[in-house]
């Protein structure tokens, strides 16, 4: 039996201008542009092996060692169909190419961190799936084209296709052709910036991002203000701060955006709570540190879960680690509030 097999890894990304809402749920087209930092491959990542063979009679998928039925996962079906169609088009144009589009596809994917706990597992997972599919089927796709496929799996996944600082342009077209990721700056751009991830809880989140964001779009007045009056200007300011490596501005925008995202969750009816008491204590500690004479030294951000990501210049990280251990001394022994520290150099 001839098997083609490829293994790839893809890192998570943590948004500093948050995506929260869709204008088209099938094509996964967002209601606002967003911007994130792709972490290093060495830290939180998904690892996917895809095998194709003419003898495979059906497509199959295993996530963290457990088989998941593909037909009930429409997003996975769409990603596989898109890649297969592209391969088929290539084979029709060039009959000498092997007919890999007719072969069955087996996918084995795992995360080296808790899945669905608000640590962007769907972002790294679908980015990895799409990238690996393109490799195994030899699809000649640019990173921008790959981001369009990844978006069909999970919106935030389109940003994990690229390293460094990555924007996702919401686009205007109904077919999504202009809703693509773009690199604001490469991973080598700002080596002095590091991320610290505080795993407050690795439990699966109560409200999934997919359903939570649509309830927010349907019920929150604040989020309509955010889409129209806040995000467009914030995207411009954030890109400029990144280009200039202006940490105080980057930090303030990051914290304001996290605050507003969670405010729109509270403004959702019924409300959604992702942050918990420990998350809020982290906000208080970082706010107190930033009030000291030295100015803004760190930025917190929280996604759809209680876990904190702290961005800070490298020189401040050792002190931040000590302060976190001082203010949360019981965390290491508590079952549901465990802090794990990853410092993350981007280069
Ligand atoms: C983000 N999040 O920009 C925001 C911030 C969570 C909070 O993208 O339905 O898992 O698969 O497109 O990408 C989470 O949403 O949702 C997310 P789908 P996704 O990173």
UniProtKB/TrEMBL annotation:
UniProt KW keywords: ATP-binding, Lipid biosynthesis, Lipid metabolism, Lyase, Nucleotide-binding, Steroid biosynthesis, Steroid metabolism, Sterol biosynthesis, Sterol metabolism
GO cellular component, one term: cytosol
GO MF: ATP binding; diphosphomevalonate decarboxylase activity
Reaction(s) this enzyme catalyzes, per UniProt: (R)-5-diphosphomevalonate + ATP = isopentenyl diphosphate + ADP + phosphate + CO2
Residues covered by the Diphosphomevalonate decarboxylase-like N-terminal domain: 10-181
This enzyme's EC code(s): 4.1.1.33
Residue stretches making up the Mvd1 C-terminal domain: 195-347
Pathway named in the protein's UniProt entry: Isoprenoid biosynthesis; isopentenyl diphosphate biosynthesis via mevalonate pathway; isopentenyl diphosphate from (R)-mevalonate: step 3/3
Signal sequence range: none
GO BP: isopentenyl diphosphate biosynthetic process, mevalonate pathway; sterol biosynthetic process
Family in the record: Belongs to the diphosphomevalonate decarboxylase family.
Name this polypeptide is given: Diphosphomevalonate decarboxylase
Organism: Dimargaris cristalligena
Span covered, complete protein: 1 to 347 of 412
